[in-house]
Design brief:
The protein has helices spanning about 10, 30-35, 55-60; strands spanning about 45, 75-80, 85-95, 95-105. The chain is an alpha+beta fold. Its main location: membrane.
């Protein structure tokens, strides 16, 4: 674009600082980063099982339908964090809510710097 624009003379009058990098804040200590990262919320879910069905079968599901799942009765269920499997658990009742009792958990190396 070689054509001069009406704003070009105005731009020429601006005093630009010398070519030096902008000042940067000192990096935060690793401990603060680790503390902040540990506060990031994640979604923990307990997966009962799954079933593959055709669209035809899906279209026939009604309120009283039973869909068999791929998990055996009494088998520990899958614990997932944001969709990634991290272990196995059993369902328990805590007060008036469901909970989970962890029976197996993978090594949770979250890649976080040590606090």
């Amino acid at each position: 674009m070689d054509q001069a624009l009406p704003i070009d003379p105005l731009l020429d009058t601006i005093d630009l600082p010398p070519d030096e990098p902008p000042p940067q804040a000192p990096p935060a200590p690793r401990r603060q980063l680790a503390q902040m990262m540990r506060k990031i919320p994640v979604t923990l879910t307990l997966e009962v099982g799954s079933a593959r069905v055709s669209l035809d079968e899906l279209s026939r599901i009604r309120a009283d339908s039973v869909v068999p799942l791929d998990t055996l009765a009494g088998e520990p269920l899958t614990i997932k964090v944001n969709g990634t499997t991290i272990g196995r658990a059993e369902v328990v009742v805590t007060g008036d809510k469901y909970g989970l009792k962890v029976v197996e958990v993978s090594d949770l190396d979250l890649g976080l710097p040590e606090a």
